Amino acid sequence: MIDYKEFSERLCKLVRPQSYPLGITLIKPGEQLPWEATKPSKYGIKISLCQWTTMARRWGRVLGATAEEINCTPCLAALGLKELEETDAFARFFMDMGYFESLELAKRAAESLDLIPPGEIGGVAFFPLEMAPVEPHVVVIYGTPAQMARLAAGYAYHSGEFVESNTTGFGLSCLAAIKPYFTGKPSLVHPGKGERMLAGTDECEMFFTIPADQCQAFLDGLEKTQERGMRYPVPSYLLYQPPLIKPMRELEERLK
């Protein structure tokens, strides 16, 4: 197991994210969430799963939720936490929400999402990496586009691959966050309307998500690229003489 506390400390030193780098662990049906995980039932509520993402990364909490504690129906369907009775149900939902011009387009979009099959996941645990109670399946880091560029460069150093990005524009970042566990590829994700409304994700934030078993090479790539001059914050080039505008030149004439 990677020392995730050390990983988080080194990552934060390199990229300086404003919230905790997260670990996400997928719980199989019938298995228990980590005993440290606080569940929505403690507060007598059901949640949208992205709320727990924000709470974990900004409050520094170990959290978890099962299907019975989530009331975001698109999330339940997308993660296979509950089974869709009809294959076209998601497409009709898209049409009801006004996301597409026609049912044909909505069906095409629903198929491209590649939803998680029912029975794969029974619950989800979220935690700051430095508090990891169990081995994460994916690591998720929120930040600005400039920070995301640094993370992508760190991944590319050893893989020789560019990080791809897909976004719906309207939501399902819960699905996008865990997808690398199934695809084996990292992703850059622009959270949509749902997460920004319900979870308070800032309009300048996006996130990088990567399979946890690739984190060691990824971190080494970040460090190696920093040694070669790629840094965050991105240094501005300042070794030049700015021109003086007319009022400044006139003022210069009055300086002794």
Structure description:
It is a single chain. The protein is an alpha+beta fold and 256 residues long. The protein has one domain. It is built from ten helices and seven strands. It has helices at 4-15, 49-59, 73-78, 89-96, 103-112, 145-159, 173-183, 193-198, 215-227, 246-253; strands spanning 22-27, 63-66, 123-128, 138-143, 164-165, 187-189, 206-211. β5, α7 and β6 (187-189) form a beta-alpha-beta unit. The chain is globular, with a radius of gyration of 22 Å.
Write the layout of secondary structure elements.
Blueprint: H1 4-15, E1 22-27, H2 49-59, E2 63-66, H3 73-78, H4 89-96, H5 103-112, E3 123-128, E4 138-143, H6 145-159, E5 164-165, H7 173-183, E6 187-189, H8 193-198, E7 206-211, H9 215-227, H10 246-253
Parallel strand pairs: 5-6
Antiparallel strand pairs: 1-3, 1-4, 2-3, 4-7, 6-7
Helix pairs in contact: 1-9, 4-5, 6-9
The low-confidence runs, each spanning 5 or more residues with pLDDT under 50, are none
DSSP helical segment count: 10
Beta fraction of the residues? 5-15%
Side-by-side strand order of the widest sheet: 2-3-1-4-7-6-5
- Give the helix/strand class: alpha+beta
DSSP, total strands: 7
